[in-house]
Structure formats: structure tokens, C-alpha cells
Amino acid sequence: MNKDFIDKNYTKYNDTAELLKVLSHPIRLCIVRGLIDKGKCNVSYMQNCLEIPQSTLSQHLQKLRMTGIIQGNRNGLEINYTVCNETVIKLINVLFE
Questions:
Q1: Is residue 6 part of a domain?
Q2: How far is CA 77 from CA 34, 43, 45, 73, in A?
Q3: Which tens digits make up the pLDDT trace of 46-82?
Q4: Could you tell me if residue 7 is inside a domain?
């Protein structure tokens, strides 16, 4: 058996592993899928759809923002979120074909 089959430099997979960890929560997965389907969305709309407290939603949005999966664009007092990571869009589309 070829011992070089597995790449020993697993540290280069850290970013991908972190991305998958963040997406592994059902609420965050739901948020990302919803944003992809809808295009963009504000916090009030998401909170009404998900029926979760605003503080809980904010924590999930923060994790998605910190990982570079979503971005928020301010429009007056409202912030509309969109998915900005093409890899995540492709992954979600494959998972939910």
C-alpha cells in the first residue's frame, strides 16, 4: 500500500473544517439555505420564519459572518444578509438538490 496516499499536511484543511463545523448546526444550515433561496433577507424576516429569539439568531449570524459565509449590507436601520461564499453556495446546492 502506498503510504503517500494520505496527505500528512492536514493543517491545510483547517479552513474547510471550520466552515463545515459552522454549517453543521441545523439553524445555521437553515439560515444559509434560506438566504441562498431568497437572495437576501433581514433579521426580522428570519426571526419570524425561524421562530427563535432575536438574541439566538444574532449569535448564529455572527458565527456565519465571522467565517465569511454571509455578509450584511446596511440599508438605513435594516441590515440585509446574503451568502457571499461561492464554495458554500455550491455545497448547499449539492446537499439539497
A1: no
A2: 22, 11, 14, 10
A3: 999 999 999 999 999 999 999 999 999 998 999 999 9
A4: no
The rounded mean pLDDT for the chain is: 91
Domain count, the chain: 1
Q: Picking from 2-11, 38-47, 65-74, 78-87, which range would have the lowest pLDDT averaged per residue?
A: 2-11
| Separation between Cα atoms, residue 60 and residue 6, nearest integer Å | 34
CATH code of the domain covering residue 19: 1.10.10.10
* Owning domain of residue 33: 14-95
pLDDT band at 2 (very low <50, low <70, confident <90, very high): low
40 within 8 A of 31, measured Cβ to Cβ:
no
State the Rg of the chain over Cα: 16
Note whether 36 and 92 are within 8 A (CB).
yes
**Contact (CB, 8 A) for 23 and 68:** no
Report how far residue 1's alpha carbon sits from residue 21's, in angstroms, rounded to the nearest whole number.
32
